[in-house]
Amino acid sequence: MKVAVVILNWNGRKMMEDFLPSVCRYSQQDDVEIVVADNASTDDSLSFLSANYPNVRQIVLDKNYGFAEGYNRALAQVEADYFVLLNSDVEVTEDWIEPIVSYMDAHPDVAACQPKIRAFYAKNSFEHAGASGGFMDKFGYPFCRGRILSVLEEDKGQYDTMKDLFWATGAAFFVRSEVYRSCGGLDAEFFAHMEEIDLCWRMRSRGYRIVCVPQSVVYHVGGGTLNATNPRKTYLNFRNNLLMIYKNAGPERLNKMLFARFFLDYLSAFVFLLKGEVGNFKAVFKARSEYSKMKRRFAEKRAENLKQTVNPTIKEIYNRSLIFDFYLRKRHFFSTLKF
Fold first, then answer.
1. Angle, nearest 10°, between helix axes 299-308 and 195-205?
2. What is the pLDDT of residue 32?
3. Residue 29 half-sphere exposure, CB side, CA atoms within 13 Å?
4. CB atoms < 10 A from the CB of 298, how many?
């Protein structure tokens, strides 16, 4: 099989009802398989799938393994040249697969790609979780071409060029199966959030490229499992971001990043408190505490990543503070950043 489109599901019958039709309609090629991997749903997802989409392959997992390990276990049962990790709340469009696969076929040094991600409920706007490709600043804050912190740009074609990225979004993540496996897949200890950025950092460090191919367009709802203000999401994002930095940052960069993040994380916590978001305030403290506990067992992963690194200087890391540029320099759009 050339391409396997794999959708991880957990109690998502309504999302499959809404979004699976577009995936089936626009993925009808003979060399494309559609797979739904179920994370031990307790709703009627699987019976709905069997009754309405008998040609969609089902992989049924024995419990909810989260996003990262759920995909790892599912993809271990899939054989294809390219995996597409597709969120269940994504509407795809005609010819969404071909431009990316053709580009990857022609560029064997490209390990992963993403389409342009627009917002499902504001179709002229970029979507938060990916937009037109992901980057990271020098302190580990991710941002996108088309989305800086909470500011989403209207899509006017300004980012329609193919561009090398630091990370591709997990909402619609095209990846070579052999590279996915050789780099270790998604880190199961992350459970959810930041796991695709962590994997992309590993791939970039090992010399592979990651690219946005905006000729492919999809629409993403976002926040289907946890909305942006959920303390659980805040906890996972802060904890996993610190774990990702510890795993992947080179020795010349690590201590500077972690030193800065000590102050910036607690500043973020008190901003949450001032906004009355007590749950998110507590989530930051919990995340830093849990990171400190988990750090020791991540030492082996860090050593392996450094051993495999052939590209220590990654040009897609923005060598400035995104927070400083956003709030003090008022640079709210990707095109205004000084790479």
1. 40
2. 98
3. 14
4. 18
First to last CA, the chain: 39
CA atoms within 13 A on the CB side of 183: 27
Q: What is the DSSP letter of 153?
A: P
Length of the chain: 339
The string of pLDDT tens digits covering residues 158-171 is: 999 999 999 999 99
Phi, psi for 241 (deg, rounded to 5): -65, -40
Q: Which residues of 50-82 are buried (b: 16+ CB within 10 A; e: fewer)?
A: eeebeebbebebeebbbbbbbbbbbbeebebeb
Sign of the dihedral defined by the CA atoms of residues 145, 112, 287, 69, in that order: positive
CB 172 within 8 A of CB 254: no
Radius of gyration of the chain (CA): 19
Measure the CA dihedral 249/251/252/258, to 10°. Answer: 60
| Consecutive H or E run containing 173 | strand 172-176
43 Cβ contact list (under 8 Å, min separation 6) = 11, 12, 13
Residue 103 has a CB neighbour count (10 Å cut-off) of 17
In sign, the C-alpha dihedral spanning 175, 177, 183, 188 is: positive
Task: Read off the pTM.
Answer: 0.95
Cβ contact 310:128 at 8 Å? no
Is 223 a residue whose pLDDT tops 70?
no
Continuous H helices in 107-230: 177-182, 195-205
> Residue 237 is inside which H or E element, if any?
helix 231-248
How far is 171 from 87, CA to CA, in rounded Å? Answer: 5
